[in-house]
């Protein structure tokens, strides 16, 4: 299916931040663009703002002045919906209220031609429900741009229950022609990104609510060990606590209060207190000229052990023995581990260091320190450790010194099942596999959406594949034993994949 031709008109209804961003994308791509807003004068103001935006691009050398001038000749504010009659695509970015959107599109049906695509930029409402009031819902779909639309490449192309596949393909091709990276998805709560991303916020909030670590430490571990660009507390401060909490609540309610999507009481209290993040000067962190930067908990320098013993398979932490040897610490390798246990690093007093596996360190029958999962143990600059109650101060200091000898800052946190990165990544991988199994989107589109939409260092399907479905399943099953609410119960898709891997290995 071919994209909408550049000479065809694109209309944008709703001229707030998102509407202006979508209009800019279409305008720079060569289309005549019509702006409409129900509030008198808003379309003209948006056109002026768009001209200023393009002017700034010229100043920065990102757009030629003649291209700017030509583009502005194609930009026209409209004072009546009837002026959109020749549009090939109408993109809506108005108030997130179902009745408002339904009324708008019902009115547009009486104006535009039969081949005109109708698209909503909604992030929280059902595309199917918005189309429910239309006589011809086949040409209606979601085009979910991410803010700021001119900069972020991802567009979720959402097919409602009645969307004609040809309409979705034409919209997908058009977004691609505009220089965006479109992904196809079905009309389910949160689409791809806002559905699959929930554990990134939720698990951090759980760790905080259990008193295991403070926001600055959790953020630092997810950035410096997990490889995420921003931690969830600083990211929600940037997004706005009210906005992020509202998306979480919307997805939870849309899934009939599924426990996997349960909102956080701590975040609710933050919103109720008016601490909404950067826009109010205070959220999880303080902002402003006089604000003191919150620092992650980092252990004081400790002496590294002269030698360690590595027993069995360290699984996703298999790079550690080599890194330990490179640091000048002797490593005794014992390939045979103990039945029922994954591999571990053993200190001189018998304390065992295990990769976080979803259990609590205190559950073990011996002194145990859990260390967190890293995206890349060589590149990671921080690691979190969680000691069991029976670990001596000397052994903990030795464990801290071991990772410090590898060039890592160390954050010692309370004994929380799954630590920080491991439980987050296991949940993300499971959410992604479950979404793919339910045909929300293809696995490759899910990974693309999460990399481009929220800057994840690796797509969650790919990440889960690298870790192995068995590790992800076992981690979640251990978490499920610790928290038997159903929140961490592995999905059927994950269980089947892990069982297939076991069959292949036998």
Question: What does this entry show, briefly?
Answer:
With 506 residues, this protein is of the alpha/beta class. It has helices at residues 17-28, 42-59, 65-73, 98-109, 127-131, 165-177, 193-196, 198-209, 215-224, 232-239, 241-254, 265-272, 320-326, 393-405, 421-437, 443-454, 460-467, 469-482, 492-505; strands spanning 9-13, 33-36, 75-78, 87-92, 117-120, 140-145, 154-159, 181-186, 307-311, 330-334, 344-346, 352-355, 368-371, 382-387, 409-412. The protein is built from 19 helices and 15 strands.
Q: How many domains in all? A: 3
The CATH H-level superfamily of the largest domain is: NAD(P)-binding Rossmann-like Domain
Q: What percentage of residues falls in helices of 4 or more residues?
A: 40-55%
CATH architecture of the largest domain: 3-Layer(aba) Sandwich
Q: How many angstroms separate the termini?
A: 46 Å
Total beta strand runs: 15
Low-confidence parts: none
- Could you say which overall geometry the principal axes of the C-alpha atoms support? elongated
Largest sheet: 8 strands, mixed
Radius of gyration, in angstroms, nearest whole number? 26 Å
């Amino acid at each position: 299916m071919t994209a909408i031709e550049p000479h065809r008109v694109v209309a944008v209804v709703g001229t707030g931040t998102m509407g202006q961003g979508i209009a800019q994308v279409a305008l720079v791509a060569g289309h005549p663009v019509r702006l409409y807003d129900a509030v008198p004068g808003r379309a003209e103001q948006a056109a002026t703002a768009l001209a200023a935006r393009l002017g700034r691009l010229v100043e920065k050398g990102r757009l030629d002045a003649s291209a700017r001038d030509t583009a502005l000749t194609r930009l026209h504010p409209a004072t009546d919906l009837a002026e959109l009659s020749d549009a090939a695509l109408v993109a809506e970015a108005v108030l997130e209220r179902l009745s408002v959107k339904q009324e708008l599109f019902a009115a547009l049906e009486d104006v535009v031609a039969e081949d005109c695509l109708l698209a909503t930029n909604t992030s929280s409402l059902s595309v199917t429900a918005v189309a429910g009031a239309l006589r011809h819902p086949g040409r209606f779909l979601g085009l979910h741009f991410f803010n700021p639309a001119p900069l972020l490449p991802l567009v979720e192309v959402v097919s409602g229950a009645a969307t004609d596949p040809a309409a979705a393909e034409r919209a997908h091709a058009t977004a691609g022609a505009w220089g965006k990276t479109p992904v196809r998805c079905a009309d389910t709560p949160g689409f791809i990104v806002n559905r699959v991303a929930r554990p990134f916020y939720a698990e951090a909030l759980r760790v905080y609510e259990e008193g295991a670590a403070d926001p600055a430490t959790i953020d630092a571990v997810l950035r410096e060990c997990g490889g995420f660009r921003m931690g969830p507390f600083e990211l929600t401060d940037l997004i706005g606590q009210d906005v992020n909490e509202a998306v979480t609540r919307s997805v939870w309610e849309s899934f009939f209060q599924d426990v996997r999507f349960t909102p956080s009481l701590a975040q609710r209290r933050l919103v109720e207190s008016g601490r909404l993040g950067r826009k109010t000067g205070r959220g999880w962190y303080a902002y402003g000229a006089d604000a003191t930067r919150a620092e992650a908990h980092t252990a004081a320098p400790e002496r590294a052990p002269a030698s360690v013993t590595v027993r069995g398979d360290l699984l996703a932490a298999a790079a550690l023995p080599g890194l330990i040897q490179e640091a000048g610490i002797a490593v005794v390798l014992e390939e045979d581990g103990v039945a029922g246990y994954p591999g571990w690093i053993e200190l001189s007093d018998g304390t065992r260091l295990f990769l976080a596996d979803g259990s609590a360190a205190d559950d073990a029958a011996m002194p145990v320190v859990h260390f967190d999962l890293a995206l890349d143990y060589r590149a990671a600059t921080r690691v979190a450790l969680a000691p069991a109650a029976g670990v001596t101060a000397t052994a903990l200091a030795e464990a801290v010194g071991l990772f410090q000898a590898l060039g890592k800052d160390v954050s010692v946190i309370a004994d929380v099942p799954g630590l920080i990165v491991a439980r987050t990544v296991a949940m993300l991988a499971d959410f992604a596999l479950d979404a793919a199994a339910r045909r929300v989107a293809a696995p490759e589109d899910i990974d693309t959406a999460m990399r481009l939409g929220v800057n994840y260092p690796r797509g969650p399907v790919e990440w889960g594949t690298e870790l192995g479905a068995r590790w992800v399943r076992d981690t979640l099953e251990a978490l499920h034993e610790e928290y038997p609410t159903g929140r961490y119960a592995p999905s059927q898709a994950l269980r089947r994949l892990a069982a297939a891997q076991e069959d292949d290995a036998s």
